[in-house]
Amino acid sequence: MQIDVLTLFPAMFEGPLTESILKRAQEKELLTIRLHDIRGYTNDKHHSVDDTPYGGGGGMVMMPGPLIEAVEAVRGEEEQTPVILLTPQGRVFSQKVAQELAAHPRLILVCGRYEGVDERVRQSVVTDQISIGDYVITGGELAAMILIDAISRLIPGVLGARWAAEEDSHAMGLLEYPHYTRPPVFRDMPVPDVLLSGDHAVIQTWRRREAIRRTWQRRPDLLLTAELTEAERWFLAELAETDAPLPG
Question: What is the helix (H) or strand (E) element at residue 131, kind and residue range?
Fold first, then answer.
């Protein structure tokens, strides 16, 4: 998979893209990430990328010229490649959206800055708009890093264990079950006996129920769309009677 990132600050990506899973994915040639400095597509000696908004108001707006020319140059003849603007106005990013985007062989991420981008950028080259949540950050760079990380985990071969991505929180529609490792007892806190039993079917049932319990306690809204068996629905009904969700 190839991801092209259009940004005013390519140096911001150096740490996240050169460590851990993303580093290994690139070394294994499962993932190619290319950074493009939007200032390289300006036509004036000052390399201007923003200007004051028409109609007044505070802040600066990214001009259409450099952004549109950058997208067109990077995209080339592949007009079917999704061009995603990272913006608070976009659809909210989720695991489902990550799975959708991971199905594409190539993505172009456009990092907005300042008060936003000229509307004509959206009208001419942007095919999708994504927000990472209902809050404001300085620019689209951090949002782009989150998308890259979440999407890359879904590329076959990137994660060591073949089931790791499927059992992550949100991947199965629930929060993930509790994890334990050595020692079996730490400061009088033991590992649940079921995990030491060696019975994988029983362990799997326990993990599934604990995922449901944790979701009920912390994110009960997710249970409205989670796929549950009849037995799991009975278990959830028992939780509703005995275990109140944690306060938001």
Answer: strand 128-131
